[in-house]
Fold this protein.
Amino acid sequence: MDPTKAMSVLSKACPYLARTGLTALQGLAATGVQSLGGSRGVSTSAVEQARCSVCPGHTGQSALLAKASQCPVVGPSIRANEPSKASQPASQAPPAACPYAKCVKDKADAQAASASQPATHASHEAAFDYEGLYQAKLAKKHEDKSYRYFNNINRLATRYPQAHTAQPSNVVTVWCSNDYLGQSKNPAVVDSMKAALDTYGAGAGGTRNIAGNSALHLRLETELANLHRKEAALVFSSCFVANDATLSTLCGALPGCVIFSDKMNHASMIQGIRHSGARKHVFNHNDLDHLEQLLAQYPRATPKLIAFESVYSMSGTVGRIPEICALARKYGAITFLDEVHAVGMYGPHGAGVAEHYDYDASLRAPVGQRIPGSVLDQVDIITGTLGKAFGIVGGYIAASSSLVDMIRSYAPGFIFTTSLPPPIAAGAVASIQYLSESQRERYLQQAHTREVKTDLAAAGIPVVPNPSHIVPVLVGDAESAKAASDMLLARHSIYVQSINYPTVPVGEERLRITPSPGHDSFMRARLVAALDSVWSSLGLKRTVDWERLGGRCGVGESREHSELHVGWKRGVDHVWEDAQLKQAHDYERARKGGVAISPVIPETVQMISATA
């Protein structure tokens, strides 16, 4: 081996030699080495008793090998190949004079001292100011007016849609509940829960894998799979967990998966996408051209998932489900549709907007039977909640049996959590079955929504345009939105929660109104009058004011421009079309023996109406 090359190898192997220049190493080698290499990996020097000038006291090798033999890295190999190795212990320590040996000794001494003495940080350093951080974060929330206040609202089952505040005598009308159809007080639901409570007790007893998998859970999953005409379903503790667990598990398992997410997707989907670790692209809300541009960047064989919603809860806009499914087929993607704010509300059986696209076909086909070619059939994964229109709590997915089983087997959010209590499962089953047959609640809710939107438009109150059951009223400022909510509650006994960042973007703060089957014409008139009064008192912008400013969120904008974002069908104002509402009305009236469909007005409302 070339001497220079050999010295380079040695210097790389040894921390001490690595700090020695090549010229110095060549000088050491010249003091007596005649050959390096030969028939062995490292040879002894031809000059015996050569003294090392750098490491005094060491003899018996060339200066270079003497230096190298002191290194704990290569030294043992050198000594093992010496002819005199029988008379010298292979583990001979480097001479005390060796600088590297001193460094090793100092380090060993320091480690020994550290192990024998307790750490002194606790007594000599100040701890982190945890409380200071909490207070600073809260101060920031207060400063930008996004701090969240939680009103004490106690909904009354026998006085729906009313509630009392912290004082039971203070009764208010709730106009922002997600119990869209009042199923939480439906006698069929409540009685089922009471029966399950008496039979099975209050709790599930464990995870689904350990003592928490009952016949009621299995029945609930069968009902959900049939509702969405899918092979299987899986129930979670909430739909936030369902979205997070499914997206993170599925997209984490798909090799090289790329996710395409609508800009207005719910936080639970964003969380799941983040936890998956997959690459993501965010496309503009309901912008099919933008979505296709992003999809076209990847080979068709690349695993892809498009995540979007059917009804966007804060805007009321509707996802373009058929068009997105078509793009998914074109580019080899699967679809993940969140129907949280649509299940129970749309379709002849309450399966959501995807079912509503094929209203007539879904009405004719038995529940649970697949309808090939339907929009519902084109969606790969559907997620929904039991906590809104169904009036209970919990979330779920519905998809192919293999996908559901894979999530069941791998998702920590499903595996490691206590299952829903049996009374909850029983109530959910009853609610799904009831709404699969009854059209009364859906008809009344949609009729009341139309009336509220019409009356607010006549008063110049700025409603964000959409074809769904959500009535977002634009305020445009966090502080003003809270002031409007507080004034409605204090002066008019009407509860409508203000919605601020991060739920909606800064500058798009709003009040979110959700009419229900129980909100009659008298309640509606009081709401419109109260909003008109609050808008005047606070000097809030009306529709005409937003129009002068160029519009925002569809308010004060041209219909052509707003239709680019609201979804559903071009030129159609409502998901529930006139003919479908009439069919629902006639069906329900015939089912009830010709009795007219009208909301049940609570006794307290009748008393207020009589004295108004």
Summary: The CA atoms of residues 122 and 128 lie 11 Å apart. The radius of gyration is 36 Å.
